[in-house]
Amino acid sequence: MDSIERKDLNTEQQNANSANIDALSVREILQAINHEDRSIADKIADSIDAIEQTVEICTHAIKDGGRIYYIGAGTSGRLGVLDASEIPPTFSAPSNLFTGIIAGGDKALRKSIEGAEDSAEQAVIDLKSAKVQSGDVLIGISTSGAAKYVQSALNYAKSVNLKTVYLLCNTTPFLKANTDVTISIDTGAEIITGSTRMKGGTATKMVLNMISTTCMIRLGKVYGNLMVDLMAVNEKLVDRGVRVIMQLTKHNYEQAKEVLKKSDMSVKTAIVMIHHSCDLGEARRLIDENNGILRNIIR
Questions:
Q1: Which CATH class, in words, describes the domain spanning 235-297?
Q2: Would residue 28 show up in a list of annotated catalytic residues for this protein?
Q3: Residue 2 pLDDT > 60, yes or no?
Q4: Can you give the pTM of this predicted structure?
Q5: Which among 3, 153, 238, 273 could disulfide-bond with 283, CB atoms 3.0 to 4.6 Å apart, if both were Cys?
Q6: Catalytic: which of 36, 117, 121, 190?
């Protein structure tokens, strides 16, 4: 039996600051929304310890050959899919390193699938289909902690020896689950009562960005604050990659671009080739030997 009722969840409360929002001008509505959004970063700061634990768990899992899965329903699921899908192009990471799973499948990315979040059985089916295995990490996302789909997924994942993290936007989940870490972002009452696509969604995106980005930094995908592991696959990224190479070497634009072409369009590899005056094969060997940490290679 649940220890609390849905009506008691902070995300279900009526926000006194927006009680008459329908009578406000456009500017006043925008200011009211902006005022509420400004509190999110401070709320997240209160949960840094749990987010740090999550990053440590994820980083260790990846180093040991594991993968990271996000799972959620509705907005929570969509944000998980979004964050996971942006990791490969940003950091040249394998496409399955981070995977987003949403209740209702890919159709739910564009259209609400009624009742999908209430299917405990489907969560297990979806995880089995994704071939999760011991050593992976599952991050269950549910702003209210009331999605049976997410609760079931977390409990199943724990039963097959995955590390589990519960990300919610309440002080305590409506449906408890067996997890290693709980990240509770108390976003409070929404500007529109119960509309967790707003503050809850903003908090969720920020936390997922923090987790995945910090993991990639710790895994050597960044040098300073430069995306040295990007693959230059379009004109914008070619230009950015060349400028990164220029910044970390003494090459001019054309010289940097030429080495980038010789490196199979890998910025990090090009930088190593220049610093060590070596060919592509030797640069790749040095990168592998140093676990991809550019700072160790060009120190």
A1: mainly alpha
A2: no
A3: no
A4: 0.89
A5: 273
A6: 117
CATH 3.30.1380.10 at 6-218, yes or no: no
Active site residue 117: yes
Q: What angle do CA 113, 118, 120 make, to 5 degrees?
A: 120
Give the separation between CA 197 and CA 211, rounded to whole angstroms: 20
Which of helix, strand or coil describes residue 230? coil
Q: Is the pLDDT of residue 270 over 80?
A: yes
Contact partners, residue 41, CB within 8 Å, separation at least 6: 206
| DSSP classification of residue 221 | -
* Side-chain half-sphere CA neighbours of 79 within 13 A: 26
Handedness of CA 108, 114, 119, 122 (dihedral sign): negative
Question: In the numeric block, which tokens belong to residue 292?
Answer: 């991809």
pLDDT tens digits, one per residue of 150-192 = 999 999 999 999 999 999 999 888 899 999 999 999 998 888 8
Q: DSSP class of residue 277?
A: T
Element (H, E) at 52: helix 48-63
Helix (H) or strand (E) holding 151: helix 148-159
Please pick, among 12, 28, 36, 86, the residue that the annotation labels catalytic. 86
Q: Give the CB-side neighbour count of residue 230, counting CA atoms within 13 A.
A: 22
